[in-house]
From TrEMBL:
It comes from Altericroceibacterium endophyticum. Keywords: Amino-acid biosynthesis, Decarboxylase, Lyase, Lysine biosynthesis, Pyridoxal phosphate. GO terms for biological process: lysine biosynthetic process via diaminopimelate. Residues 30-370 form the Orn/DAP/Arg decarboxylase 2 C-terminal domain. The lineage of its organism: Bacteria, Pseudomonadati, Pseudomonadota, Alphaproteobacteria, Sphingomonadales. CDD domains: PLPDE_III_DapDC. Specifically catalyzes the decarboxylation of meso-diaminopimelate (meso-DAP) to L-lysine. It catalyses: meso-2,6-diaminopimelate + H(+) = L-lysine + CO2. Transmembrane segments: none annotated. Homodimer. This is Diaminopimelate decarboxylase.
Amino acid sequence: MDHFEIRNGEMFAENVPLATIAAEVGTPVYVYSHSTLQRHAQVFRDALSALPRKHLAFAVKSNPNLSVLSVLRDEGYGADVVSEGEMKRALAAGIPASDIVFSGVGKSRRELAAALDAGIGQFNIESEEEGVELAEIARDKGGHAVATLRVNPDVDAGTHAKISTGKAENKFGVAYHDAAEIYARLSACEGLNLRGLAVHIGSQISDLAPSRAAFEKMGELMRQLRSAGHSVTHMDLGGGLGVPYRLGETLPGPDDYGAMVAEVTRDWDATIMFEPGRVITGNSGVLITEVIRVKPGVSAPFVVVDAAMNDLARPSLYDAWHDFLAVRPRGEMMEAHIVGPICESSDTFAKNRTIDVVEAGDLAVFRTAGAYGATMANTYNSRALVPEVMVKGDKWAVVADRIEPETIFAAERLPDWLS
């Protein structure tokens, strides 16, 4: 459920007409629903109520907007970060450092040191080399680093190849068959408090069977490590639960996921950690766009909109589907290609899609744009960086400004021989 709906012939975000926001802020613009964020955070947390010990860390990469992070902070979520910049955002949003988990395969020495200085709660180590380096930095600072070892279970999540992270050929984690020996060696490193294991097999997971298989393998590895005398008190199961992008699509929900996790982990006697992202923010946002013109085509007309692949990259990167709906639908349908103004054929949101009839000047939305939307935006073709708005009830506010090309190129410098 979300809080974007048609009332009296036009689409609202909670109690605010989207047309009102578009008129004042311009398009394209992302709009987030405060109530939807709250509800999804609560539903996910409640689905895990059977677990005696747990930790929830929102995957900041899915939507790092400070207002979004602040809503989730108030819901008791920590943060899963993959860069120093994301860590700084989480801290700026008031998320306690002790509730921050630092993941990611390429943490630099500088980032490891900065995270230690900030006092974050846990590092998810991706390699033995990283663990050794982290221990060395912690020793030099006169302290220790709390960590888990991320393991690659060689399980296919059944998702898009570019967001799969748990197969043997993926870059993440240490190989499952090497994990016990690496864990033993790292446990002996002075400066490192290795307290558990981490796993994450992919994003937009639509079938719980691969997750179950991965978690069962991790449980067996945990038992093996404990039998060898090692301490394993925390198990980070990552995130990746998918959301429906198409109207009428049905996927496993948080309740299904929570029941599966409770069953698999019932005898683990560990704190179970989670890194939900898309499942919290995906349906909490839309991207409003204006139709520039409808251009005749060979097989179907082209609906040219002012949003582009630089504003919403998922369709061009993953052939991802986002429902496209008129803000003020006429009750008639048409078949069309939906494209943006970028000078590339890859700037295509949909082909041969049955959509609401639209004309030049009409407003429309791309649904389910709250995750991996604005965070992946860029300024290709020297376009402005898309703004973001949050709605709560009948109130709304710009929570990220549109950054115009002039502001962006003001940071560029000409060398002496050109100036």
